[in-house]
């Protein structure tokens, strides 16, 4: 059959919502169920750009806010040739954070418009499905507290959550709201069902 491509599935949400755990388990589950699937994460901290970002997040280096926004975007763009190749060859990609994190986090800083924040990521491969793991900032803080990275404060996360709500109003994108306060198994079950639906839908799309 012609044109079988993989699906681009993105997990988004504020810190502590369980994205990384679910992304990993979703790849395992999809594979168990006979799909070709692979995981990716952004920021991808292992590249040269990723190392700069990591050092910024760990508060080891001070990078100007616009500059770091563009580095995050560049860190996504540098993976695009590989992403396109994998999707084209029929592999479904499960991505832990994407451009929406870029907009939600940077636009939570003073004097950044959503419009400015969106521009550098314009043209990235469009996700077929965006799973928003929804957890209130209070519930997130109750999950053993935040780590020590730069954005991990309750005040900032409240702003980020509001930005995500605005982004989810874009009906040209396939956002699905997932209640991340459920058990790990229940969340996995829900997102596996949604993912298998979209894998089936995109199979014969260019
Ligand atoms: P993680 O490794 O998933 O914990 O993500 C690291 C942190 O970086 C997290 O607080 C979210 C934030 N982040 C992810 N992508 C972007 C981005 O494109 N721009 C900004 N400003 N922050 C981002
Ligand atoms: Na984090
Ligand atoms: Na994570």
Can you tell me about this structure?
The chain has 206 residues and is of the alpha/beta class. The protein has nine helices and five strands. It has a five-stranded parallel beta sheet, sandwiched between helices. The chain starts with 7 loop residues before the first strand and ends with a helix. The model has no long low-confidence stretch (mean pLDDT 95). Residues 15, 149 line the site of one sodium ion.
SSE topology:
Layout: E1 8-12, H1 19-32, E2 37-41, H2 48-57, H3 65-77, H4 80-88, E3 92-96, H5 99-106, H6 114-118, E4 129-134, H7 137-142, H8 154-167, E5 175-179, H9 184-202
Helix pairs in contact: 1-9, 2-3, 5-8
The structure holds 2'-deoxyguanosine-5'-monophosphate (DGP) and sodium ion (NA) (2 copies).
